[in-house]
Amino acid sequence: MSEKPLAMRDALLGRIWRAMADNHKIFFTCADFGSPVLDKIRSDFPDRFVNVGIAEQNLINVSAGLALEGYTVFAYAIAPFITMRCYEQIRVNLALLSEVRPMNVNLIGVGAGYSYVVSGPTHQCYEDITLMRALPNFQVLSPADHVTAASLFDRCISKMGSKYLRLDAQVLPALYQESLPDLETGFHIHRTGKTVCFVATGFMLHTALKVADNLEALGLSVGVIDLFDLSTFSAERLHQALASFSGIVTLEEGFRGRGGMDAMMFEFISRRCINARMLNIGVEGAYRFELGNRTELHEQVGIGPEIVQQQVTSFLQSLSN
Hints:
It is a single chain. This protein has 12 helices and 11 strands. It is an alpha/beta fold. It folds into 2 domains: 160 residues, 3-Layer(aba) Sandwich (Rossmann fold), CATH 3.40.50.970; 134 residues, Rossmann fold (3-Layer(aba) Sandwich), CATH 3.40.50.920. Strand 10, helix 10 and strand 11 form a beta-alpha-beta unit. Helix 1 runs parallel beside helix 7, helix 3 runs parallel beside helix 5 and helix 8 packs across helix 12.
């Protein structure tokens, strides 16, 4: 039986709502941001639900205080607002304080990349991977479908510390139909391939698989890895997965060359002495105000399937020269 597509936030919030009935140490905070599942949390657990209003800085302050009292806290807001609007509070009250006090705060940011496609650059989020990975004592989790998003609840409950879950706002196809991703490994190998391997996160995994299908039809087999844990993945296992490839292509729905996933992979490959060339695919470093569907916008900024396939084809040719 195939998994029915579901919004990431509904899948995760559903897990939280069901768990709150038995786990009285779970507390939910939000910054005037809703969903049908959130209404059930508010209705069924009013003593463990706080809406601080449009005040993300206070959202972090309240969440940190509750965590210091022993609660496992889930804080919920739109992705650019729960990261950039309150960055100093995150740095001081979560990243810094968690180094000396045990706490468990899970920031749920909805609207990764271009997923709020018609809202423009104020509500779209291209910088969050860079910003949140820059903080010590923070885990950055970037699922590609609702199955992974829901399974990350187990990570949030079982692992102490501060976490940022960057969720897509759109309903995306389920990529994990047969089994769940391995949370301990932090990545999943979708295809083994030859010569070149795609390492993608979030929505860009869908693009990577689409391009891989197109290349397969042309007789070119490429590997595809879903790197959903951008902080605590198994370095040894990822090394093993990439060691046989002569080329690695990173794909992220964030700014390219500005300290995001591409910088992380450069660091990883360098330190692990992996002998492979890299091609980094990400958003061109500029804000855009054009309206359109996600596919159109992605092609304009350099991360759509057509332009990605062109770049990868040229990359493959350069590897054979």
